[in-house]
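Structural prep section.
Before we set up the soaks we want a predicted structure of the protein with zinc ion in place, mainly to decide which crystallisation condition to try first. Input record follows.
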Amino acid sequence: MAEFRKSMHDVSHLGLRCAECSADIKELPFEPKNDRPVYCSDCARKRRPPKGPRSSFGRR
Ligand SMILES: [Zn+2]
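Run finished without errors. Recording the tokens verbatim:
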């Protein structure tokens, strides 16, 4: 049972655009909010703080 499927919200009918590169957004991993800018998966990943290989702090 290692299959983890993120529930994606279909937002293709909303005609959302990425706030960064204005690409069409078809689905989001979260519920879209009007007062919140949305980003495509590419930009969302870029905006996240980079995870170093030594981020397993306190793990194990
Ligand atoms: Zn983008």
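Observations: The helical segments are 41-47.
Flagged for discussion at group meeting.
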